[in-house]
Amino acid sequence: AMKPIAEHPSLPSTLDLVACTVVKGRDFGDVWHYHPLCEITLVLRGGTERWVGDTLETLTPGSIAFLGPNVPHDYRNTPLPARRPGPVEAVVVHFPVTLLGEGWHERTDMRPLCRLFGRACRGLRVGGATREPARRLLVRMVRERGLRRLILLLELLDRLARSPDLSEIASEGFRLENQSYASDRIGTVCAHIERT
User: Which of 17, 23, 89, 192 has the most other CB atoms within 10 Å of its CB?
Assistant: First the structure.
């Protein structure tokens, strides 16, 4: 298997607690990589495949995926012999798992969110009735900054935490193997989250 590249937070803007970028162009500018931040990607148009952990899927416009920290992934726009892929456009949000401060994952009222983050260690696709409100929140996040953007992210996470419309992308076996990528502090949070 190809070893994913560790990407250090030279991600869009590490100064923003919640980074939100619109990716546009011939491709997503991705390689097979992982990083310590959580990532939510909404594909507005274009793209051919999404590779998360050990699972490769066809991309469709409107698809939304939530990846926990250190989940190897790659978004592709691959030319085929008979077809040149069109341009891509996506909204990509990055934020740290420590967003809510230290120890948040030990609080009882945070259990649903804890479970969400635990499941995100395998990558989650957002479907069903949750997809449209999630899409609207992500598109709004592009225009907002600072606290307003954080509020929208929390609203989105709350929705996802309560949604029955999420499904794991990578296989169960993959997640266990993935633990070795985790940096200590984030690894600890993820391990705790998975136990709850």
Answer: 23
CB atoms within 10 A of CB 71: 27
Give yes or no for a contact between 83 and 136, defined as CB atoms under 8 angstroms apart.
no
Retrieve residue 118's tokens: 């635990």
Of 185, 17, 196, the closest CA to residue 119 belongs to 196
- pLDDT tens for 105-124 read 888 899 999 999 999 999 99
The string of pLDDT tens digits covering residues 124-143 is 999 999 999 999 999 999 99
Residues with Cβ within 8 Å of 58's Cβ and at least 6 positions away in sequence, in order, are 48, 49
pTM: 0.86
CA 105-41-110 angle, to 5 degrees, is 15
Q: DSSP per residue over 182-195, as a string?
A: --HHHHHHHHHHHH
Q: Residue 92 carries which DSSP code?
A: E
Q: Which helix (H) or strand (E) holds 80?
A: none
pLDDT digits (tens, 9 = 90+) for 6-54: 665 455 545 688 999 999 999 998 789 999 999 999 999 999 999 999 9
Token duo for residue 17: 């607690």
